[in-house]
Design a protein that fits this description.
Helix 2 links the parallel strand 1 and strand 2. The N and C termini lie far apart (about 30 Å). A three-stranded parallel sheet has the order 1-2-3. It has one domain: HAD superfamily/HAD-like (Rossmann fold, 3-Layer(aba) Sandwich). About 20% of the residues are buried. It is globular, with a radius of gyration of 13 Å. The protein is built from three helices and three strands; from the N terminus they run αβαββα. It has about 100 residues and is α/β, with parallel strands linked by helices.
């Protein structure tokens, strides 16, 4: 993120350096949720790494998988799978959180 200058686009950032246990433990995701003062069930994580998906699910966070590293049939433990970021809309995220 630093090399692309994306950090200025975020109010809060949590990384593995901020917690004692890294993935597959949910600690980094729960730290991020804590910083934005929301419940895990009110957040969506967009991930492509299986260990990160496992960690987010362990933390009770909705997971939208980006099927670019692994094919869709490997991403069965997620709440939704998209093969392209262009198919993810605000409505997609709202549906995940609100059903």
């Amino acid at each position: 993120m630093a090399t692309t200058n994306l950090t200025k686009r975020f109010h809060y950032i949590a990384t593995a350096e901020d917690v004692d246990r890294s993935n597959p433990h949910p600690d980094v995701f729960l730290e991020a949720v804590l910083r934005i003062e929301r419940k895990p069930s009110q957040r969506v994580v967009i991930e492509d790494a299986l260990v990160d998906i496992q960690a987010a699910k362990a933390g009770g966070i909705w997971v939208l998988a980006a099927a670019n590293t692994h094919s869709e049939h490997f991403l069965t433990d997620t709440d939704d799978v998209h093969t392209s970021p262009t198919t993810v809309t605000v409505e997609t995220l709202q549906t995940l959180i609100h059903g």
